[in-house]
Amino acid sequence: MKRISSSSSSMTRMIPFRMWLLPTICISILLWIQCTDSTGAWLMPTSRSPHPHPLLVANDRVVRPHHPFPVPHHHGIQRSRIRSSRTCTRTRLASLQQQQQQQQQEETVKHMFQSSLYQDKPIVLIGASSTSTSTTDKSDGDGDGSRDELHRLANHWVSLFDKKETTGTVWNYWDHHQVLYDKIGSSSLTPRDVIVLDYTTCPSACQTDGEFQEVAKTLYDTHGLLSIYVNVQTSCDAATTTTTLTSNHEDDGPTSLLEAEVFLPYSDYELCIETTTSQTQNGWSDTDTDTDTDADPHAAAAAQDAGVLEWEHTCWELQRLVARALLPPAIPGSSTDSDESSSSSFNSAHLTMGPQTFFVSCTLPEYNISQSLALPDGTRDFMEDVCRDVDAVEFRADLLTRRENRFQILVQQQWLRRRCRPHAIRAPFLPLLDTAGLEDVMPLVFTVRSDSQAGTFPTSQQQPLLWDLLELGLRSGANVLDVECAWDKDQTDRLLSLSEARYASQILGSQHVVGNVEPTSLFEAVELFEACSFQGRAHGTKVVLSMPKNQGGDNNSNSNSNSNSNNNDSVYLANQAGEMAASVARSQGRPVLPYIGLVLGEEGILSRVANERFTPVTHDAMGKIGAPGQMTASELITIRLLTGTTLRPKAFCILGRDISKYTASPNMFGAAFAATQLSHEFYLADFTSLPDFLESDLWQGDNFGGCSVTIPYKQAIVPHVDVLSKAAQAIGSVNTIVMQDTIGDTEIIRQVHGHNTDWMGIYRPVARHLGRRLYDTTTAKNVLLLGAGGTARAAAYAAQQLWGSNHTNLFVWNRTPEKAVELANAFGGTVVTDLSEDAMTRLLDQQMDPNDNYFSVILATVPAAANLELPTAAFRNRPVVLDVNYKPWDTQLLIQAQAAGCSIVRGSEMLWEQGVGQFELWTQRTAPYKVMKEAVLDACLNNIHQDDDSSELPIVDAEIEQESSWDEVADASLPPPPPKRYAILGHNIAYSVSPQMQNAAFEANGLPHTYGRADVETVDEFISGELWNAPDFGGCSVTIPHKQAIMPHLDELTEAAQTIGSVNTIIVSQKKASSNDDDDDEDERVLVGDNTDWKGIYNPVKRKLSTDASSSEGGYALILGAGGTARAAAYAAKRLGLTPIYYNRTPDKAVVLAASFGGSIVTEIAPDGQEDDIDEKEEETPLILNRAWFKDKDKNNIHVVLSTLPAAVGFTLPNWMLEEKDKLIVLDVNYKPYHTPLLTQATEKGCQVVRGSEMLWEQGVGQFELWTQQKAPYDVMKEAVLASCLPEME
Q1: Taking Cα atoms as reference points, which of 454, 440, 423 lies closest to residue 361?
Q2: For residues 465 and 456, what is the distance between their CA atoms, to the nearest angstrom?
Q3: How far apart are CA 533 and CA 971, in angstroms?
């Protein structure tokens, strides 16, 4: 796999004049770390990680790490490997309480425009379009002479939905006012519709008699419509107007009076258009200027292009405002460590202000669209470099030259966003109804810093202007609004109430202690954080302290006996106070807010290093430091890495089997880590055994942060998880592991948290495409689910989240109805058995509500190779159709759905959406959505048109589909294969029942294959024979004495065959021969050796273990014998999570087994009557088994006995042993005789028995599926085996 690296390592970029600071800072931090004791508020690293990042070796392949840039060695926190049940219980309880509190908050914290509430109302554009100076004849009401900016903007808005199921309409109020109120009252309009209330084009009578104002008030107050004030001014007016932010506009002329009395009171958001030109169809042109465009056609073309771009950005600003208005509210203290919220990442302060996030302070006094922002070498806009290194930009309104001009403040914000848009690679995703959403919105922090808190705004003289400025920040749709806690309490309460009721902005409560003041105590600093929380109404807190100049001096020697120590304490005081305030809030059940704790000036540089979240920074390219002591994000990252303080490189991976050929996860996460400058590494962990992974250096390492989990380990990993999320519990599988450190009584305990984001990958794109239908719960909505595997469970869970389980009718189809019944019972649904046109029509018309007799959503989780198509009736009313496969790009179902006019969701979109959820769970910060999306698309679209043959593509993408079986593949859709010959290879094998079993299976599945016997004394006889060399040879079973002898003659061996040391299955596959002439390439035969004997043991034992709760974790398997089959038994035991104990007549062979598979040997099993005569052994696994060992080792009981001894030996166990363990499982590999002495004894003692016949058909099922790539007819093969075994019973 290609190693992912960033094109440039911003971590190493330094400001030259600060290079000398690095050694000083690093030494200071390291000295502070050494001096901090274990009772400090911070947990500091104490030792180096014993596990550097080793390369993993799996399946004889080196699996290379994926990381954005080289990482220096780092410190690791000491963690306990021992799980504490008491701590886990306490953590689960705290997690449950936090979930309940968050759920209660979500039920109460709502604003009136969020999508779930505002889905049956239109938006309103209110304002006054400009008039053209070239047109003097403007008659009443006909719009002549108007540039009509409002209508043009409205037309652009509705054009976004031209190809959607529900389109939009532009309503000129004056033309349609008689019907508009009826439509509003009947909820027949949506946010796709726009009502234009343009003062310039309204009848003159309405302008003079106050009707315009009454209409605006009715739409806004009475009907509660989302109104956006489109503030249009010419460049001349914008530069010379005296319009201010204050409410007194009596001396500002009629336009300002109209703004004060109508436009501002009856709107929530504001959009500005500065017109320097007149309107054309595609943009703006210079027809109003004196420029001689005929003389300079290039200048005219450039001006036209600039006008088009300016108009495009104006339309984009409208989309951004509406998207921001419709967001769910930011919930104070909402947690991001769960996969249970479908929309938490869209507006979460914990992600916006997450770990290792930065915002740059933009301190320009003037922002102008024509202003040059090129780097000194003139190569490019410096905002490109700025946006690459930060997560948000601070807009300092108090530093503006014209900070009293509302139009200029808004226009300059729009200018700043326009500069950032092309480079906003770290921007979060912003959903917008059922469109593709916005991916290029750089978050803005709107700040008015007062002169008493390191700013310039004179709050003592201009209090009214201050609150108008802050409200303007809300109206501009700012992501974060900085509110100082020292301001007037009543006005602050009014502002917060306004924000909570009508806006989605996040409130950052702040306090700056500046000047040569008395030292701030820890208690006082905690109180400042409490004040900044506004009693839990803020979403984040920021406290910046000053270090008094006499701190650590001789004048205060009594209180500062150690000046260096106290200086360090002061530097970190704000951060320690923030952590303490968070702890207090957590203990009291109040919202825990992200905090920023800093110390001003050069003295406070270390505090910026220690501050983990949303650190204010400067940038090299800006040429000016926003505040004394500010550093660049690159400098901070470098120092944090070198000192191992708040930034510890972690190792992540994707865990699966045979995943290197298709997985896009390394590309996606490698790009995400690089974009956010997180020095984490991403590995490809390709393991054939889960225990091997759990024992690897990667899992055991202190720097392991978590992993993606794909098949076949999504269910197998669950028993190894400490805390399971609600979604993972419901779905029954885990696709995301997050390692979390929990502070115990005396140590840090590493806990394994299991999540499932697969459902989020389904829910989010489907919800976007549903649009308004997502919020219609008047009747239950119908969802058709195709498939019943692991991904189908995630899809069923996602379907329930769309409308709630009480408003969702789930219909499940699967080729094997039994699995469909199982899923329908788990999630509540109806099984569909027939997908014919007539049956589908009957289902829709007879089993559904007459008002909703159609599917709203179709979710397909079947393999792409099934080429599944649905009857046309299924596409009635154009449902949203999702197919989890992303290879091929257009599956047959999606092609059919597109032709029917449906909205479709490809599997690639599901992949990056669930990946976004994983990234945010791992990092606790906003994911770079656009970067992750593009990485997936690059992987999916690469070479998509180069080869039309999709046969080389995986049947189903294992990152999405949870089961590799062919349960969901419709046989009728596959072409019949050519006849092939198979056989069982062995000697003296007339007894074998394999031919009866496999031939019955071929016939049941309609395959033209045959299966015979190849009874030869030596392997050489078979290899030189006709069958081995025949072109129709498909493979064979292998039994004694050839299981080892055949291995040198094979081209490839699977991991199971290599580990067990023998082959019982040969698969003949075809691949392209290596040739320089592609046109002449022919398929060459490849012989692959596998071993399914272990599956014959594993599968039946696994089923019985799953019914015994006491055997769910840990324990031992006693293996009798040490031959070839015993090796398969040991392999199966390890896969079951059991530790083998070997007993064999000759201990030397058992020792070899223990060396190969782990475990230990016993030399004696106490016979009946002597089980109590032998003293108990201290060892974990003794040499002699007796009753005392069983009684004292409750958690280490033997759960399974696996006998591989020949039936002729007549071996039995002591009766006391079979009686000691309740529900003991006893397996005997012999299938003739049907009742072996051991199984007869075990049956009499009430044990659970597994006969050799069951092992035979189970391993045969595995062989059949390896040969045919089809689901084996299990019952048919079972009956064939039993029919051959049962007649020989006595």
Answers
A1: 454
A2: 13
A3: 62
